[in-house]
Amino acid sequence: MKRIGIILMLVLGLTACDNSDNQKAEEYLKKAEMALNKQNYSEAKLEIDSIRTLYPKAFDVRKKGVKLMQQIDLQEQQRNLIYLDSMMTVKQAEFDAIKGHFVLEKDTAYQEKGNYFYPTQTVEKNIGRTFLRGQVSEQGEMSLTSIYCAGGNINHTSVRVSVGDSYAETPSSKDSYQTTDLGRPIEKADYKLGDDGGVTAFVVQHANENIQLTFNGDRTYRTVMQLNDRKALVELTNLARVLSGIEEIKKEQKEANLKIEFVKRKMAGENVQKN
Questions:
Q1: Is residue 120 within 8 Å of 271, Cβ to Cβ?
Q2: 201: buried, middle or exposed (CB in 10 Å: 19+, 13-18, 0-12)?
Q3: Which of 13, 16, 126, 254 is the most interior residue, by most CB within 10 Å?
Q4: 131-137 and 103-105 as β-strands: parallel, antiparallel, unpaired?
Q5: Could you tell me the pTM of the whole model?
């Protein structure tokens, strides 16, 4: 009998502890609900995490916390979408205001995405000219092309821009090629923004100065960047910023929608199991 009494006391003690834990866990859950109502999602998540950490055996309250966490995730992503939609409206308006300053070249027969050029740098206006040309894809990816056709081949693979003792130089191009036009050799080399040795940024910074352009190959060829070429890179850099911003927003919108679909499927699945 004494043994049974001890066991009974232990059971009652454990039950009392469980009830106490449940009550304390419920307090955290209420705080989480209040935070959610105020749209303070970070605080709501912290309160739910506290239940998991402090009261791991409060199973019923933890289940409620899981459901509340799903509501938090859903509302948080829905709020993010509203913000992203407003940002997209701003960026799209910014693009609409400047897109008329550029020429979009795109052959739908073989190109999935076209490239924007500054009007003074289009191909038809620069036949036979040696210069540094910029272009921006419809997705906001900017690149440079160094075009040399000043007579004979120099097999250039990089370029340098300089003002006095200051300069920037591209690494050796991973995409250089040669052709001819009416017997005149033409060399071209491409450099993507971020892999251009800071040349684009240098030109933008010194756009109002006389910039010397040097083609590096078997021998060097030097010329001076024309004002329109410097202006082109400034304008194209801004275009790339706007278009890449739009692409980033699209990416975040897609991720938010995928998360919303995931949470909704999870909530629907749990409701089906419950019924």
A1: no
A2: middle
A3: 126
A4: unpaired
A5: 0.82
